[in-house]
Amino acid sequence: MNNKAGWNMNKDGIASANTSVLHCIDLSSPDIHTSISQLKQEPLSLSLLYASACLDSGFFYVVNHGISHEFMDEVFAQSKKLFHLPLEEKMKLLRNEKHRGYTPSLDEHLDAVNQINGDYKEGYYIGVEIPEDDPEAQKPFYGSNVWPNAGTLPGWRETMAKYHQEALEVTKAVSRLIALALDLDVDFFDRPEFLGRPIATLRLLHYEGKLSDPSNGIFGAGAHSDYGLITLLATDDVCGLQICKDKDANPQIWEYVPPLKGAFVVNLGDMLERWSNGIFRSTLHRVLGNGQERFSIAYFLEPSHDCLVECLPSCQSKDNPPRFPPIKCETYLLQRYKDTHADLNSYK
Predict the structure, then answer these.
(1) CA 268 centroid distance within chain
(2) Per residue, what are the HEC states of 161-194?
(3) What does the pLDDT look like over 14-70, one tens digit per residue?
(4) Which terminal CB of the chain, N or C, has fewer other CB atoms within 10 Å?
(5) Where are the transmembrane segments (predicted)?
(6) 81 φ/ψ sector (left φ>0, alpha ψ -120 to 50, else beta)
(7) Backbone φ/ψ region at 6: left (φ over 0), alpha (ψ -120 to 50), beta
(8) Cβ atoms within 10 A of the Cβ of 248, count?
């Protein structure tokens, strides 16, 4: 595939290059246990259904997830209001050492090998809100958020706090399907040591319309895999996300993931690949800008700070030993953030 994919966009904003066909999983049943029983009585069990969605690429859609279209429209509207503030106002909200707040364009550099600069996108991190007098607030990814002034953006904090909670419920529902697909108890990841005190991070993203040119190292977001367990992604109707199903292929083949109205794109992260011993793969992905302004909203679900991520017993055998050494969640995340974000001292 031509590495300049994304130049010839049709009227729907989708390039003439390859377009990926992803599975779509319906989360509408209110009774997970009944749904599992019904699905397992059918020729295609839930485990096979979910595995077929993940083994190919680690990317899939979820629909009927319980978050209304109207509320998603409000979240996007509030996100746009933030990013359309003057840069000097946004820089007053610059991310802190806990990765809360605003990240300007080029702050993040996801693909040091192929990018000449950083990502041509700006973002805003919102994490789990923990009062400063709570002992948990001493942990690297816990603490108070950086909130815009209510007089400047009325209702903004309330909208984002509500979305953070609703997205958490969706990602936990997906984690229960993951558990079943790995022949674990449905509530395996709900345990205190896993998602009992999760690191759950909402990140608003804005691509300002710069045209990407992969052959010259210019990307909206450089090629990378996500760090944690699950990423939930909401997008507007501008195409730009690409996935590479085989990161070791030469040349790599990139396919567009088209927006699907009312659906979230879900992708599985590095920690799940480690837990599952490579059964579920963390898939390389990137964003190419086509000259249009683009907004997306990512929600990253990781386990607790102290969780030891190691190969699950159901995913290893004598002939298939663990491929990855155990690592603590906090350690892995801190290193990945350090590797990909600008030093805060560079803004002083």
Answers:
(1) 8
(2) HHHHHHHHHHHHHHHHHHHHHCCCCCCHHHCHHH
(3) 334 588 888 888 888 665 543 333 223 233 445 555 555 456 678 988 999 999 999
(4) C
(5) none
(6) alpha
(7) left
(8) 7
Both tokens assigned to 154: 């009325």
Count CB neighbours of 345 within 10 A. Answer: 6
List the structure tokens of 310: 């190691």
Q: What are the φ/ψ torsions at residue 71 (nearest 5 degrees)?
A: -70, -40
In Å, how far are 118, 120, 213, 227 from 290, measured between CA atoms?
17, 12, 9, 26
What does the alpha-carbon distance between residue 139 and residue 147 come to, in Å, rounded to a whole number? 20
Core vs surface per residue 175-210: b (16+ CB within 10 A) or e: bbbbbbbbebeeebbeeeebbebbbbbbbbbbbeeb
Encode pLDDT of 123-173 as tens digits: 999 999 999 899 999 999 999 999 999 999 999 999 999 999 999 999 999
Q: What does DSSP assign to residue 94?
A: B
What's the token pair of residue 109?
A: 């550099």
| CA atoms of 105 and 72, how far apart (whole Å) | 24
DSSP-H helix ranges across the chain: 32-41, 46-54, 69-83, 87-91, 156-181, 270-275, 329-340
- Give dist(CA 211, CA 240) in Å, integer: 11
Q: How many residues does the chain have?
A: 348
Structure tokens belonging to residue 145: 């958020």
How far is it, in rounded angstroms, from Cα 59 to Cα 52?
A: 11
